[in-house]
Structure formats: structure tokens, C-alpha cells
Design goal:
This protein is an alpha/beta fold and 282 residues long. It folds into two domains: 226 residues, Spore Coat Polysaccharide Biosynthesis Protein SpsA, Chain A; 52 residues. Helices cover 41% and strands 19% of the residues. The strands form two sheets. An eight-stranded mixed beta sheet has the order 3-2-1-4-10-6-11-9. Helix 1 links the parallel strand 1 and strand 2. Helix 1 runs parallel beside helix 2 and helix 9 packs antiparallel against helix 10.
């Protein structure tokens, strides 16, 4: 077997979910090697113990690497996925956070085959189900049609990171890591979903497949979606930071996509301030 995929599983206080997440990765069936890289950002619950037990049970069956920092990195403003880039050996990368999971054991094989057939595209994604309070719902997250087709980089970027469910993406490692290696400081602190999606699609777009093969767990305790919904000040800070990221990324690409980034900036600002006015005068 060859051409392995590197799957990054990122965990923080996911003791209720991490086993489901990791096992959905380990249950993948493919004709290529898969390596699993697990990162735990100093969880304060039993996540680490659960991870250790799973790793011990699968020792020798699949290549598993673990990255356990001594201090929580997210609290320092570091996007923790950047810690895992030096560990990647695969030709492709997929990310499944510790509270999400996959529901098709041929997910990676299907996406790998699509990208091998379409060498001029670097990324592939699909829709996801949403899990809210243990209810599996079809919120049409990532759904844009019933056929396989190419999505433009403009369509992806104008969605600001909301088009592709993170756990649905498979992308080529080399072009992405080449850009990361030349801009380490930026990606060390700014490798958020919107940035990742922009980098893997700029100039090439992405391949969409309609199969729903993952589950996004929303609004649970400790989740990003819940924090954003209840903390207006945090939303304000993130809005300003995201605006700055747009222009930092524009600089990395030497203004090549300036028009596209300007449209995104305008769209985000109009929506943000409209929503603020509605909340004030409702």
C-alpha cells in the first residue's frame, strides 16, 4: 500500500466524544496507508486517558502519532493544527476534530479516488449531518447539490469558511505545506477554517461530492459554536481579527486575489454591522 493520507484529530475536553471520533477514523477502509496524528491541547477532563487507551489497543495495526504539549496552546493564541504540520508524511491531509466524526468507512477512499482523477484540483469536500442535543439533523451543512462538480475558489472564499464542514475536507499536502513553510508565523497563529479553505482552493477551486459522510456536533458544552452564540464581546474580537487575517493573506499572495479579498471584506462588514443594528433596535 502507498500514497497514505494523514488524518489530524484535534482534541480539547472531548471525553464524551473523542472515542467515537477516533474510532470513525480507525474504521476507514482503503487501498492506501492511513496515518493518524492525535493532538490533545492539555484537556482537563479524561480525554487524554481515553486517547492513551485507544492508542494502546491499536498499537501495530495502524501508524499513530501523538502530540501532547505541556501547556495549552489555544489560550496563547496559537492555532494548534500548526503543531502537527511537521509530523505529516501523507500525500493528502484530512482533519477531524475530537467532537466530530465520520459515518462512512469509505469516506477517504472515495475522496482520494476523486482527487486522483482530477489532478488539477487540490481539495474535495462533502455535506455533513449536524448533531444537536443528541439529535442527528440534516441542516444541509455543506450541501450545494446532488452531483459531483467543481466549485470555484470565489464561491468557497465568499462563504468565509462556512461552505466546507472541516471534517469533510481532504486536500493535497504538498501545495498547502509549501505555502505554510514560507509563512510559518502567520499559520502558527492564523490557521483557522476560513484560512485553510482559502489556501487549498485559491486558483483551483474544490471538488464537491454530495455524499453525507461526516457529522458536525453543534452547540455542545465547550464547543466553538456555543461560545460564539453566547459571547458578544468574543464575536466582536473575532470579527476584527478575521478582517485582519484577510489582508494578511492578501499580502502572502502579493495582491494576486485582491479583488476577491476586497469583496469578502465588504460582505463581512456589511453583514456584521447590519446584525449589530438589528440587535440594538430589536
Amino acid at each position: 500500500m502507498n500514497n497514505k493520507v494523514s488524518v489530524l484529530c484535534i482534541c480539547y475536553n472531548h471525553q464524551e466524544y473523542i472515542k467515537t471520533s477516533i474510532e470513525s477514523i480507525l474504521n476507514q477502509k482503503s487501498d492506501f496507508d492511513i496515518e493518524l496524528i492525535i493532538y490533545d491541547d492539555c484537556s482537563t477532563d479524561n480525554s487524554r486517558e481515553i486517547i492513551d487507551e485507544i492508542v494502546a489497543n491499536y498499537k501495530g495495526k495502524i501508524k499513530i502519532k501523538c502530540c501532547f504539549p505541556k501547556e495549552n496552546q489555544y489560550s496563547k493564541g496559537i492555532t494548534v493544527v500548526s503543531f502537527l504540520f511537521p509530523l505529516i508524511e501523507g500525500d493528502y491531509i484530512s482533519i477531524c476534530e475530537g467532537d466530530d466524526y465520520w459515518i462512512d468507512n469509505k469516506k477517504l477512499q472515495k475522496q482520494y479516488d476523486l482527487l486522483e482523477e482530477n489532478r488539477d484540483i487540490d481539495a474535495c469536500f462533502h455535506p455533513a449531518f449536524t448533531l444537536i442535543d443528541d439529535r442527528l439533523e440534516d441542516k444541509r451543512y455543506g450541501y450545494i447539490g446532488d452531483t459531483v462538480y467543481r466549485v470555484s475558489d470565489k464561491d468557497v472564499i465568499m462563504k468565509g469558511g462556512s461552505m466546507m464542514p472541516l471534517a469533510s475536507i481532504l486536500f493535497r499536502a504538498k501545495p498547502f505545506l509549501d505555502i505554510v513553510s514560507k509563512n510559518r508565523e502567520f499559520f502558527h497563529h492564523e490557521c483557522y477554517h476560513s484560512i485553510l479553505q482559502a489556501v487549498i482552493t485559491l486558483g483551483r477551486g474544490a471538488l464537491y461530492t454530495p455524499d453525507k459522510m461526516s457529522v458536525y456536533r453543534s452547540m455542545h458544552e465547550g464547543s466553538w459554536s456555543l461560545q460564539q452564540s453566547i459571547d458578544q464581546q468574543k464575536r466582536d474580537r473575532e470579527f476584527k481579527a478575521a478582517n485582519q487575517r484577510i489582508w494578511k493573506l492578501n499580502k502572502i499572495y502579493n495582491n494576486k486575489y485582491f479583488g476577491l479579498f476586497l469583496k469578502l471584506y465588504y460582505k463581512r462588514n456589511v453583514k456584521f454591522y447590519k446584525d449589530k443594528l438589528k440587535s440594538i433596535y430589536k
